[in-house]
Amino acid sequence: MNTGSGLCRPRQAVALFVLTAFALLANGRFAEASLQCKLYQWRSEKAHYQTTYRYSAEQTKAARETYAPLPKKGVFAIARLYEIAPEATTTKPCKNLAVTKRLFLQRKNDPDFVFREIIKFYADDGTLVATNIQDLSEQLPRTGYYLAADPLPIPEDAPPGRYKMVSELVLTKKGRRQAFLLASAQIEYEILPLD
């Protein structure tokens, strides 16, 4: 038998086929995850977490019947309800974690009010990972019940592990540094390995 012809024997051919199939399958999963991350990055190149509240007239009416009115003196604003919740407790890099928020805000009508949301992300060991500050003044122009459902982008290089997102709603006035904490809420979620 000529072994120098470059043809494989049947056993070698089967072994080579199995090894090639395994390598392609493993590389296929890696390539799929890599493609998923590239598409995610392309779609959300400038994406970072932002809250977009929408006013609900129906929920505002119900909340006004449930909660006491804003005191006439000494109080500028109160967040009677401020809740956040994740759609799931686990996620992966190159995906979005849907986060919903519910807010019932009572406020005085003062054009100098500035409402900000300060969001801090912590690793499981308490390390501060990132801080995001957003001005919500235009989104919260009056007393009312507000709803938000926004994606939290999980970057490709996010290390697997447990995380905490702490959201604070604060009130300041234009030209002043003093801020008042109206409410805070938090969620926990876990980032799983990509593959």
- Give the structural class: alpha+beta
DSSP strand content: 35-45%
Instruction: Specify the overall morphology.
Output: elongated
Helical content class:
10-25%
Q: Indicate the low-confidence ranges by residue numbers.
A: 1-8, 13-30
The whole-angstrom Rg is 26 Å
Largest sheet: 5 strands, mixed
Secondary-structure blueprint:
Blueprint: H1 10-43, E1 54-56, H2 57-66, E2 77-86, E3 90-91, E4 95-107, E5 113-123, E6 128-135, E7 144-154, E8 161-173, E9 180-191
Parallel strand pairs: 3-9
Antiparallel strand pairs: 1-7, 2-4, 4-7, 5-6, 5-8, 8-9
List key phrases describing it.
5-stranded mixed beta sheet; alpha+beta; 4-stranded antiparallel beta sheet; 195 residues; disordered N terminus; 9 strands; 23% helix
